[in-house]
Amino acid sequence: MSARKPWKKILYEQQGYADNFNGPQFLQEMKKNVTAETYELWQAIGGSCVLMLQIDVVVLFAVIFAFVDTDVIGWQWLLAICFTLAVLGYVVLLYLSSPANRLDLIKDNLKTLIVFFAFGYGLSPVFRTLTETISTDTIYAMSTCMFLLSIAFHDYSVDAPIVSSSFSLNLAIFGAVCLISRLPSSNHAFAVLTLAVQLFAQWPLVRGRLVALDSRLNAAMMFVVAGVTIAGCGALSLVAAALHILLHVFICIVCPWWLIWMQPLKSTIHGPWDEAIIKDS
């Protein structure tokens, strides 16, 4: 009896083997973790700081709203602080933009400023009474949901289908408008609305320009904003400040370490059973 021919991975001739036969060399082409990306601990911590920074911004807005609602900060002082920080942020944007685009940037921002003051101040009485008939507990719950969704959809410079900076901004502004109805006057409402636009619209632009220069600035900005939010939470409640500190520890230390610890457990296999991928030459 003649020996069987060695099996070859071809389809153009009859070899005498079953259609589902796999030779011993079939698994030799298997590769593991071809597309898996590994991270260093400092990279994981840097990425977590981006998320924590946005959470801090939302918490900062909530803290300042509580201060305005209890008259710890007057609406005049809040407007003055917002105006000062807006000018500083605008100067940073102008400085980091190309000279050819500065004139267009000035024109666009002036138009936006005029529209905001006209509609924002004019509609503040409407915003303040928009949800006046809804209970305060419902307003707080709805605002919390909006801010959480805003954090989830925020643009963290990650290419993902869930990312939508405009949707995130709309959610945050809607959450702010819900809270505005709990304020005592239209002036308070306009001041808090100005704060919301500054934190959720202008701040991401400034942060993006700064991070484009050096990604390590994310961590530096997070520490600054975290210090302010923890101090603000401490002024309202020591328990809230402690919980906020624990949240920082969990997101910025525990989660990155957890990711690094679990990286070796990742195992993906690739081989001749995968669909063919056509690569452009």
TrEMBL record:
<comment type="pathway">
    <text>Glycolipid biosynthesis; glycosylphosphatidylinositol-anchor biosynthesis.</text>
</comment>
<comment type="similarity">
    <text>Belongs to the PIGC family.</text>
</comment>
<feature type="transmembrane region" description="Helical">
    <location>
        <begin position="189"/>
        <end position="206"/>
    </location>
</feature>
<feature type="transmembrane region" description="Helical">
    <location>
        <begin position="41"/>
        <end position="68"/>
    </location>
</feature>
<feature type="transmembrane region" description="Helical">
    <location>
        <begin position="245"/>
        <end position="262"/>
    </location>
</feature>
<protein>
    <submittedName>
        <fullName>Phosphatidylinositol N-acetylglucosaminyltransferase subunit C</fullName>
    </submittedName>
</protein>
<dbReference type="InterPro" id="IPR009450">
    <property type="entry name" value="Plno_GlcNAc_GPI2"/>
</dbReference>
<keyword id="KW-0472">Membrane</keyword>
<keyword id="KW-0337">GPI-anchor biosynthesis</keyword>
<keyword id="KW-1133">Transmembrane helix</keyword>
<dbReference type="Pfam" id="PF06432">
    <property type="entry name" value="GPI2"/>
</dbReference>
<dbReference type="GO" id="GO:0006506">
    <property type="term" value="P:GPI anchor biosynthetic process"/>
</dbReference>
<keyword id="KW-0812">Transmembrane</keyword>
<feature type="transmembrane region" description="Helical">
    <location>
        <begin position="218"/>
        <end position="239"/>
    </location>
</feature>
<feature type="transmembrane region" description="Helical">
    <location>
        <begin position="109"/>
        <end position="127"/>
    </location>
</feature>
<feature type="transmembrane region" description="Helical">
    <location>
        <begin position="74"/>
        <end position="97"/>
    </location>
</feature>
<dbReference type="GO" id="GO:0000506">
    <property type="term" value="C:glycosylphosphatidylinositol-N-acetylglucosaminyltransferase (GPI-GnT) complex"/>
</dbReference>
<feature type="transmembrane region" description="Helical">
    <location>
        <begin position="163"/>
        <end position="183"/>
    </location>
</feature>
